[in-house]
Amino acid sequence: MGEFRFPDSPVFYRVLNRSLPEVVRGEGVYLYDTAEKKYLDACGGALVVNIGHGRREVAAAMAEQAAQVAYAHGSMFTTRALEEASAALVEILPANLDKVYWVHGGTEATETAIKLAHQYHRARGKESKYRLIGLTPSYHGNTLGALAASGREPLRRPYQSLLSDFPHIPAPYCYRCPWKARPPECGLRCANELEGVLEREGPESFSAFIAEPIAGSSAGAAVPPAGYFPRIREIGDRNDILFIADEVLTGLGRTGKYFAVEHFAVAPDILLMGKGLGGGFVPAGAVAVNRSVIQCIRDQFGNFIHGYTFSHHPVVAAACRETLSILKREGLVEKAAERGVKIFGADQVLGKDTPLAAALHSEVEMQRLRDSERDRMLSEHAQEPPKPKSYKDRLRRKD
What we know:
By secondary structure, the protein is an alpha/beta fold. The chain has helices at 44-47, 56-68, 80-92, 106-123, 144-149, 153-156, 189-201, 228-238, 291-301, 314-329, 332-344, 346-349, 363-381, 391-395, and strands spanning 3-4, 20-21, 23-27, 30-33, 38-40, 99-103, 131-136, 168-170, 206-211, 242-246, 270-273, 285-289. 42% of the residues are buried.
């Protein structure tokens, strides 16, 4: 039986209106179904598989760890796999981030960060600082806290009455600038909107600002203009709010650097990881933070009041440790940067010495391309650019 669908199967599928082929194996960039039909997994699923399918060394590391100890509660024990995976992450993280809290995906990482930011401010005697400021469009996960922080209306709408009151400001999406302005003449108005919210509602209720360094599935790899994140950082520091960088999609090599925030000369207070952290072999996520934040919480409360049954899982840690080793050993992050130049022809457009963010497009090149396309469309049609097709529409096969 090669395909399954609701309601014929006992599985509660993510999609209920079509059949799903049964995949039986994966090799490199391909997946194979029961009829040996080959599928090019070009995006690695939801931008998860960043070292290729079928990596036996990862499976072997998981099996070895499971044979030794498959589970040990994170509040009672640590493991060598967990210590080594954490050390490997700290080695590639921005220098100010030296502690890692392990979870099982990007959504859990977001929820953890929301609590972490609030507990940090509580430990400093600022109980009222619990709200986040996010961007529209944006996406940080599907649980209630993460969804409240997200600016993705189709996902928020069915659960609006359940969501916390987190305000959102326009994302740095120059292609669809709400003020129809262009950098640098715009004066980074999108960044200055953060200041506006803080002035209107008061900084005393806000714990953090959260953003994807490069907007992911909600805005199609929209790269912010130069100076955006330094301005955000300056406003946040002045108003005592933390900067949370959501690198769940952009992290672990997707932009030609280990983390996309490295392209913007700014360091976050908290950095979120997921997706490619475990190469798709395990559901993995992590929250990186500076020890000073943790020390403040420890001094006041003894512990970070939070946790999951399966956080800090040794088999997950073993898979992540091996995934990180492969990324480094095979130079995959550097190769992403090199191939990004070739794919987009940036060496011809900008010159070979221009720094590029390869996998999700270069900052400078994509800004120029968007500006050029916007000018062309406005000139030819004297109207707003047409709304781009959704991610699912672009991937849907024609009948």
